[in-house]
Amino acid sequence: MVLADAVALPLALWSAFALRFSELWPEEYLYPAAVLFMVLPIMGILIFIRIGLYRAVIRYIGSQMIWTVASGVMILSMMLWAAAFVLKIEPFPRTVPVNFAIIALIYVGGTRFLMRSYYQWSLDLFIDKNPVLIYGAGESGVQLCRNLQNNIEYKCVGFLDDDPLLISSNVAGRKVYDPRHLATLIDSRNVSAVFLAMPSISAKARRDILQRLEEFPVHVKTLPSMHEILAGESITSLREVQIEDLLGRDPVPPIRALIDDSIHNKVVMVTGAGGSIGSEICRQVLKNTPRCLVLYERSEYALYAIEQELTLLSKTLGINVPRISLLGSVTNKQRIDDVLSRFQVQTLYHAAAYKHVPLVEHNILEGIENNVLGTQILAEAALRAKVERFVLISTDKAVRPTNVMGATKRLAELILQDLAQQSSQSTSETIYSMVRFGNVLGSSGSVVPLFRKQIEEGGPVTVTHPEITRYFMTIPEAANLVIQAGSMAKGGDVFVLDMGEPVTITDLAKRMIRLMGFSVKDEHNTRGDIAIEYTGLRPGEKLYEELLIGDNVTRTQHPKIMRANEEMLSPDVLQQTLVELETAVHQNQVDVARECLTRSVSGFTPSDACVDWMTTSLPPMHYA
To answer: Which of 13, 276, 377, 404 has its CA 20 to 30 A from that of 117?
Structure first.
């Protein structure tokens, strides 16, 4: 580009003279100015170096480059006039520097755009790019289209848009098509993918568009939603379709007073702080300025990871909240007592639990010790330490459980209900509550990333049963609702979150296959790309999940939170059960512990025989 400028600048000066006098070679003016033709390229290149014009990568230049060139030629034009004055060049028309500035801007800027166009033409000619359509001809779609011009994998061949005023118009050099003509475009333009570039639309509108795109053999990717963009995502970063896009749940704005009641200027403690739900509660607590945040976690790596993340988040948001990171188990009574009293905890979110159904089925005593006895130790310690609010993170699997994990969580709820009665009858002001919800998206062991990995590897996608259904909610939404529900508690409340409609896992798998650009291989389409394989229900797994044991449910001031009135155990029966479980755990009596759970948790009907590894026959083991 230096050589091009060395030619373009003298040429621009000659053009300025020619334009001024309307003749090709006005020699009586050109010959006196000959020295300017020699000095001009040197001055121009030095100025362009100084303003950084040569640091710009040609294939990425945009409108900003025009302003850089304009500033450079303006400086050069003034220097040209000053040089003519100092060197006493006569005759020298005053309009020549003005003409030169305009023409040099065209020549210098034009050569760069010409080179960029040549580069892009070469990419399209010699590199086999995948033709794509961009759904959304707004500002985000235009930015994405411009970014794809330098992409070696994709090229934009047009836009899709539902706005009838835009259809058949030209946007960013590409035609806007009616989405109803997508099938024709796929055939005529060999379209392989559709990129959804509408970050501001509602979740429901996004879901409706994705449903329409499912029937076409194209890979669908999306730009982040406006919420994700505000959280720091790049507006042009493409990602795979997420399950939350398919669910189409519009988040309900939080009630500020409910957030502040439990967090603002409070000492807040989160157990299981490094887990999926616990870590998100930590993030949201930090953003709402507690007096101190206590993180309690038994996994060293998980605690380290969330501590590092919160440190970065604090710097980003400019928040200076003291954080205490503690290693420990909720089953360690002495440590729990010491922590609650030392830091004078006011709000406690108990998210520490073993939650994977098959793993707990194979490790029953550990599940009971952590989920039941750990909750008892923590909740009783909270009563002694006069913690203001104690919120248990529960699960829909606690409702008429068919597995040990669900039974332990229901028994943990019963412990809190009993302590809530004790608290109301004593001088303690600890308010106990529990929040029950279904599966959260993106948690450890979640089915969605597993499906995506299986699809990328060519399948098959494994589903346990053709009719299995689940409720889903995003982790941020669940954590936000947990915090608000805890603030509404009066004591012993069982809160149930509105999870929306249940999702059939088979349908979810099929939708993910189609939206990733593949077809489902089954008896109706034997030439499909990805098959779905049914592996059978795992130990303790239910076909359908429920959120309520009874029908006694009332609304709250939040539209996504309901209050359930569930049955309780008598204090004597509960205490006897806990003593039996503790004895069984210490004496390694798996069958006794399981039978005790079956007897004490109403509705617990194990779906399988005991499969604990300490009591069942071991799988075949091969020794070298």
So the answer is: 13
Q: Which residue has the tokens 């990602």?
A: 239
Cα angle for residues 185, 190, 195 (degrees, 5° grid): 70
Euclidean distance between CA atoms 485 and 555, whole angstroms:
12
Q: What is the dihedral of CA 600, 604, 606, 612, to 10 degrees?
A: -50
pLDDT tens column, 521-578: 988 888 888 999 999 887 777 777 766 555 677 888 898 898 988 888 899 999 999 9
Would you call the peptide bond into 41 cis, given omega within 30 degrees of 0 as the criterion? no
Alpha-carbon distance values, 465 to 159, 193, 499 (Å):
40, 31, 22
Distance CA 427, CA 406 (A): 33
- At residue 450, what is the residue type? L
Amino acid symbol at 554: T
Lookup: tokens for 184: 């024709």
| Token duo for residue 236 | 């042009």
Q: Domains of the chain, with CATH numbers?
A: 1-125 (no CATH), 130-241 (3.40.50.720), 256-438+473-497+546-600 (3.40.50.720)
pTM, rounded to two decimals: 0.71
Own/partner contacts of 106-109, CB < 8 Å, gap of 24 or more, are 106/12, 107/8, 107/9, 107/11, 107/12, 107/15, 108/5, 108/8, 108/9, 108/12, 108/69, 108/72, 108/73, 109/65, 109/66, 109/69, 109/70
Q: What is the pLDDT of residues 69-95, one digit of tens each?
A: 777 778 887 887 877 777 777 777 777
